[in-house]
Design brief:
homodimer, Arc Repressor Mutant, subunit A, elongated, DNA-binding
Chain lengths: 228, 228
Amino acid sequence: MREELILDHGQRLLLRDGYQNLNLDELAKAIEYSKGTIYLQFETKEDLVLGIATRVLKERTRLFERAARFEGRTRERMRAIGFACCDFAVNHRDYFNIEMMLKSASFWEKASAERRRLHGIQAGQTFQTVTGIVVDAIRVGDLPPETRPADVTLSLISITMGSHIAAMEPDIQMVCGVKDPLLVVRRNQDLVCDGWNWKPLLRDWDYAATDRRIKAEIFPTATWLNEA
Amino acid sequence: MREELILDHGQRLLLRDGYQNLNLDELAKAIEYSKGTIYLQFETKEDLVLGIATRVLKERTRLFERAARFEGRTRERMRAIGFACCDFAVNHRDYFNIEMMLKSASFWEKASAERRRLHGIQAGQTFQTVTGIVVDAIRVGDLPPETRPADVTLSLISITMGSHIAAMEPDIQMVCGVKDPLLVVRRNQDLVCDGWNWKPLLRDWDYAATDRRIKAEIFPTATWLNEA
DNA sequence: CGTCGAATTGACTGTGCGTCAATAAATTGT
DNA sequence: ACAATTTATTGACGCACAGTCAATTCGACG
């Protein structure tokens, strides 16, 4: 299919060059169609990039769903999601820059309504996967019964996104003495879970053992995992 | 001074139009100098935008410093910083999009070394203001003695940045039922402080009273403050 | 008032997104 | 088999805008 072909090569070039330097003439050459054909499938460059972003996001959703099936206590399952996040960041290092682009208002208004819808659906699915674990945690009593699931999910999204951004920034790395950015992400996730009083708390459980199981069972090929 | 004039009008246009739509011909017309004169002061468009961003950041640093002088327990002072953050977000609603731009690698490499340095210095100063309160908290025993200050600051930067981004996103607002984005930011900051076991914990202190004092003493003119 | 150097200009170049009239390919009708 | 008609594809072109630089204006000083 032509759209898939465009997305395949578009993704490759986008991740290599970033949004600003993505050149549609070059993309046209790569897919061996003309630029006009690209514009039959996508309204604008932004529309194309949103299409690519949604496809990459779909990969992450799948990764999250697999992590959510990790067998263990609810907080261990959420921890597996945290690992999935880091694994995704490693394997799609440059995708975060693109996700940043998506926050810009001027970007969205140049993309087609249909692609905005599809991206929203995909984002919703990721949200559902995380919230499912939170709901389980409340049901089995690992989280206090009055906890509102969406608030927990939102806080986890926030700390994860924020930590990724902050811990990758050279200025902040310097001044905060960051050695391993992904470790920062996972530690901050622990902090928020402890803040919600998600049992078992960090100090009450051997999460190092959990980490080894997650690595073995969910990410057998991951090489980025530092012990700490 | 010419540079100030350029930055003044540049800031106005940048916040009105965003980075992509900032037009240097229009800026030249606004300052009643030619485009060539702009390029005598700034190497590239990115360089100019970084200059503007640093100047806006300087405003935030000043705001933080004022908030840090709030009289009260260490966690109350940190709470004042949290308010400062929200106040800044309200008064520079569009600045966050620009801060997002700064994360993009291709952006930095087009700015001059000197302006990169100045921005780093300014960021460092903001960091110092926050870390100063954390150090005080450890000294007076509001935070556990083994706490590493930079880790606390980093987690607060992360949750604040992440919450701002997440809570502003329409998709996430919908699915998480966000009514007041700034309330989300402050609640998540509470969560992280509780996670560090920063005394007095949320449930052990009348922070609503603190909030009223902060509003009265530091932000007498702020109108965005919702009681909750 | 003339000379020299610094400040300023704005027409010009290059790049790359997006368009659309022209062309090629496929399908249908006879 | 061939013409007519519809659909797919093209790539040269328009245009907006970042960045340049030779020409020009300005101002200081003798």
